[in-house]
Amino acid sequence: MIIPITTDDYDQHSQDFRRAVREVFPMLAISPDWMEAFLAHWEVMGEGQAVFQTQTRSGRAFGRRTGWKVHHLIPSDWRRRYDILAEALTEIQAEFLASEADELTLDIHETLPSHTLYFAGLMPGLGFEMGSGEILLQAGEDFLSHVRLPDLPPGIREVRLEDARLSDYALLYARAHAARIHHRPSFFREQNWRETIVDAAAHDDLRRTWIGLEAEGQIVASCYGGCRPERWGEIMSVEELAVLPEFSGRGLGRYTLIRCLQELQRHYGAPGRVFQIGTWRHLGPRPIRMYLGLGFQVTQAKTYAAYRRNR
């Protein structure tokens, strides 16, 4: 049974939740500081979040979700953790199937400390698909001094963003992703990318760093990023990078990435700031090798466990 938590119930729920976290997290070798930071992060009932408990024959689990993205699921008893979590996930699946949503997800954080990795093995047996996941990498601002910008191949030139060509960039990103993201068709619909690109172009920080490459009037590669200290802290983030499949293997991804990083540094570089870039595992080892070769280091890896209505 799933018990939704209201504001009237929240104080008691919070006490029980904290007690469960303090029992489970030490068993996962999670430090007291990290545990207290986790509790502080989830101290209040956030807007749009559903806080709940599951009550099963094995015990309680404490969870929180936004839409059908589950942020955490903490068992009340470490000794019975797998039974509690399997029963809790089954209850959540039943409630999800009674909704109109298409997908129920939970992030499996693979970098330690992690409060989800230990039960990842349960997920496939419950019908969850374990997606290829995301890897985040970072590099210090000064690493660019050791990076050489490659020459562009003949017939390819660098261009800056023009509003008149936003549809060309949308087509580029749609085509670049089409062959790789089979399970999420919205990723390669041109209309979806058109909306993404139009929104991105409305942000000054992204426009300043936007690098495109053109060949015979066609946009064949692009990279842009931004820096928003009020939201991202001291991170200069590369947001999107794409190369048309027929132009891959010619160093265009490396060129556009380095140029984007240079523009990020020129506009937003400051002591203590770092570059960050993410990649999806289903894109294969090539981008990861490129980022590591440039000097980035992996800071986070996670897998998306997804339960779909039409699985």
From TrEMBL:
It comes from the Bacteria. PROSITE patterns: GNAT. Pfam families: Acetyltransf_1. GO terms for molecular function: acyltransferase activity, transferring groups other than amino-acyl groups. This is Uncharacterized protein. It comes from Capsulimonas corticalis. The lineage of its organism: Bacteria, Bacillati, Armatimonadota, Armatimonadia, Capsulimonadales.
